[in-house]
Amino acid sequence: MSWNNLHPGLVMILFGIIILALPEKCRKYLTLAGSVCAFCVFWMLDSHSTLPFKVTDNLTLQLIDTNGVSMVFLMVFVSIGVINAIYAVDLQNKWEAGITCIYAGSNMGIVLAGDLISFIVFWEISAFTSTYIIYARHCRRSSRAAFRYVLVHAFGGNMLLAGILVQIFHNGIGLANLSGNMHGAAFWLILIGVGVNAAIPPFNGWIADAYPEATIPGTVYLGSYTTKAAIYALITFFSGTHMLIYVGAFMAIFAACMALLENDIRRLLSYHIVSQLGMMVASLGVGSEIGVDGASAHAVTNIFFKGVLLMCAGSIMKATGTCKITELGGLRKKMPITAFCFLISSMAIAGFPFLSGFASKALIMESLHEYGEGFPAIMITIAGVGTLLSITLKINYFVFFGKCDRQVKVQNATNSMTTAVVIGTIMSIVIGMKPELLYQQLTYKTMVDPFSIPHIMEYVAIIAGGAIPFFFMLSIMKPHDEISMDFDWFYRRPLVKIIEALSKGLYRVFGWFDRHVLHGVQFFGTGLGNPYLWTEKSGNLKIKSMSFENEDRLIGDVIQVIVALFAVMILISIYVIKM
């Protein structure tokens, strides 16, 4: 095997297994070493890289397929892997560290897979390892969230598996775009399976339910991989599916509105993962070169600025013990680096000029306008206003710059956490200042001018349209502790009732069998175990005359009955043996 055929995902998985096998003291060095090795292996890949795995004479899997889209996603996966490893170096135990390495490697395997079988194998590894990452907090809330998470993803994984089997039966194991076969079963089954991981409504509730319950580094890892691997899958299977334009636009505006209601920073950011995914889905739904590049570019920039936002939320949680906005305030002076990096990244996600979100959203908006989809473009613009209100203004004002009604005790974040946050922020600034650096890495190398006057004025209008009403309605914008209802309510509540009804029904059925079977066993046990009852209580006079208490009983008749029964038992045994 040559160096350019090494698999960065398998390298990460190998390091994860080694971390689990070795003592705890090796964990820090191996976690970072695994990410750095995967990063280096990525840069050795080229267009000729392959890694075939022969299963049988007639089946060979292709573990490496270096197409344009896969290389874009792999590039950002290995990059954020290094940043995440730096952030988590002082926060994880060996079990969490090992599982997160396997999790990251499995997602790298998803984007490199050259066939459907390899794809589904890495997909399922990602699902199970991410479940443990949620559970790793080891509290009741995380355990329940992990259980709900695995149920949702088991459903999605089974739909995906069923669709892949149908696709293999008709067309073989190769990856193919299914947008032209909307009437086929494979199309809908795979769309549902991938749609669960992409948080397409009504399957979006698991993100806000599960991500905030993971450990601090666990949430950062989860926000970087699962949903972005799903966007890669949507590009591969469904780019050009027109209905996804409207699905994505709805996702963007719906999740941005849900985020406005949240008080927990990590739940709020989880909803904005869904909102940003909606923009990518709308762009890939266009299907043109600029549409695919727009979705890919926004996935790249989103991983960096959303990663920093989640890292900052984790730093706040570690420093203060809470992520609730109503319990925080005035952190700008106590956590100045975190405050600055959060501000920059929150401006990037809102699309401020000269930051990374501005560069990638330019491609998305251009693709929608070229395709003549003005209404979805307006919806995404409105979603941008919601992002500005809920993250850039709401969190920065009430958490960092506003006053708090109570005294907030702050412990300093670790140096590794601060270093990771700064590196991620620099990436957003560099991409925003030099967007051509990003555009040149995309599949079709689409170039647009994001600094055109109309584009800049569009975002100036968004910023003004959000900032002015925010400061005029501060009392309304102030967060409150309240329960928000999402789409999952519509299937979680009925599902509970169905499970309760089934449990009660089964309990009654088994209870009936228990009672009657026990009575039957008792009846036959008593009768067979006490021959006296066979004769003494019989209504037949001849049988009753055989009673053991009757001195006049006919011994010959008793012997005949016993011999006859014994003969019948022998005949039955012979018959059973012959069968």
From TrEMBL:
Entry GO terms, CC: plasma membrane
TM ranges: 6-22, 29-45, 68-88, 95-114, 120-137, 149-173, 185-207, 219-238, 244-261, 268-287, 299-317, 337-355, 375-401, 413-433, 453-476, 554-577
Keyword Zinc-finger assigned: no
Subcellular location: Cell membrane; Membrane
Topology class, membrane: Multi-pass membrane protein
GO molecular function: oxidoreductase activity
Stored Pfam families: Proton_antipo_M (PF00361)
Segments forming domain NADH:quinone oxidoreductase/Mrp antiporter transmembrane: 113-381
Keywords noted in UniProt: Cell membrane, Membrane, Oxidoreductase, Transmembrane, Transmembrane helix
Protein name: NADH:quinone oxidoreductase/Mrp antiporter transmembrane domain-containing protein
Annotated source species: Mogibacterium kristiansenii
